[in-house]
Fold each of these.
Amino acid sequence: MNELQKELQVQLEKFRLDKIEPTAEHDDANASFKKEIFNELGALGFCGMTIKEEFGGAGLGYSDFCVALQEIAKSSVSYAVTVSVSTMVQGIIERFGNEEQKKKYLPELTSGKEIGAFCLSESGSGSDAKALKTTAKKVDGGYILNGSKMWITSAGIAKTYIVMARTGATGSAGVSAFIVEDSSEGLTFGKKEKKMGWKVSPTREVLFHNCFVPSENLIKEEGQGFKVALGGLDAGRVTIGAIAVGLSERALDESVKYSLGRSQFNQPIFDFQGLQFMMADMATELEASRFLVSKAAELLDSGAPDSKLCSMAKLKATDVVMKITTDAVQIHGGAGYTSEYPVERMMRDAKVLQIVEGTNQIQRVVIARHLKKQYQG
Ligand SMILES: Cc1cc2nc3c(=O)[nH]c(=O)nc-3n(C[C@H](O)[C@H](O)[C@H](O)COP(=O)(O)OP(=O)(O)OC[C@H]3O[C@@H](n4cnc5c(N)ncnc54)[C@H](O)[C@@H]3O)c2cc1C
């Protein structure tokens, strides 16, 4: 970590210990998202870290952003994910939007006053996202959207939605991307999903019923929507990897401390080699994921992103966090299975990291595709 990153980490550690950690278990049990926490993260400059300063961002890189997300995730994967998705939305607008769109939508998102959401998945098209069915029909002055999006992070609390909808034929070439505001007529939200983890982060269906979107909210041209959506995914995968690294670090920390303090057979359980080996593996796998995430972030910052490495970073870090949090519960024994200790929540929060931003099977598909290209051209 460089000096700036160390400073960011210290600042966020204090913030999370003061503002998030004390009620983390209660908020998880009540599925309670506190907008003021997000607003405060924004006021500290953490809600648009990778966006240019002229739009209110911090003008930093993904390497810096990953350090921030790792730290937030130690206390709350949900807030880390809210920040990560909102920043991904900003990244899409900054990269593909026109000047008017950037000026209109970025400042309220970079400042953390408002939240962004990304609407690609539908009930019938998750991994096969290009099969989406939501339609956008061209009318005078804009488009009429009809259909629905499933499992949308921050739906209902976000103000700005990037929505992928079909303006043309089947397949990816018929997809366009739109910026849709929460106040749009014909836009409604489904009930909050009851989930295994990420309980503080609301996930809802987003429904479009003759929802009018003005022409100026089309991102790029018609038919470019799938490219726009994929354009955010490399960075999105690395940031999910960073969240996994933060969560793994916390779970290892809890495990070592607990095992040093808990005695059985007249000795700390840490001294049993069976548990030592488990924690040695946890520490090693954690560092392996950290290096992979850092390298992928570094390449994103260098302007030469490596999609294969982004997938590898997401795959490794999220498979590792599932193993580490599961082992953390094991090391805590019966206590680890109760909400008295945070490892129970951590294990639940880890699971969906293997599913979002492309499941880990899809990451393997992407990596294998790159390998084939490498060998066969
Ligand atoms: C809490 C949460 C938040 C989310 N937030 C968002 C969001 O903000 N925006 C958004 O657009 N989406 C979001 N999603 C949706 C998420 O991206 C999808 O759930 C994910 O892409 C998988 O799609 P699916 O659920 O339809 O599973 P499916 O695609 O039906 O997959 C089911 C299983 O089949 C496997 N599979 C599918 N295709 C292949 C293949 N080719 N090879 C091998 N295995 C395969 C999958 O890996 C998986 O194990 C969220 C989901 C959750 C649970």
Amino acid sequence: MQWLEKWLFPPTCVITAVTTQKHDLDPAFIAKWQIGSDVCPRCAEPSPQGLLCGHCLSQPPRVSRTQVAFAFEDELRDLMYQFKYHQQLHLSRLFAELLAPQLDAQGIQAIIPIPLHRTRLRERGYNQAFELARMLSPMLNIPIISALTRPIATPNQTQLKAKQRRQNLKQAFAADAALLEGLDQVALLDDVITTGATMQAAAKQLESAKPGLVVEAWAVGKTH
Ligand SMILES: [Zn+2]
């Protein structure tokens, strides 16, 4: 009955409200936010010809690869804000639909959403990374494993400098080794990657719980 649903409720752009062909987003935005191929495969920072960047060469990060769908700017920033802070949970499906086809998920055995501390979770009522994972999981046929928790409340990261962020994140996560048993390769999932410090800290925790675990980082957007 998908055709009927489509006929009754045609896809409509969440930004411009015009009827679209496929996703609830005008394809012009998808093209506009496209990150291109000139990014480092490991950290997703700009890098000519998509080569490993100098930073990753000299100081290899803990994540083996970073895959993001879009540059986090303009309308995407506003849309993500609605999703994250204004209960616009329906956007999780759109974001997952846009992210899924851009991911190379080969070999990934589990999606691990970046957790929120329980106080933040209570305030917000949901974890946007988990909501995103819930949509993405059936699209990729990869299970979600909540192997990370956030026992320590870290201050709002957006206000902090990179160095302070790293400091605050050092002990922020805890990993459940039992849940990681039998896994070799997992993907961390978040809505947005800013400096990458959150992903690094989460990956570090996973690796100490399961030595040798290969950890990737996935997100809808990346700031540059
Ligand atoms: Zn890099």
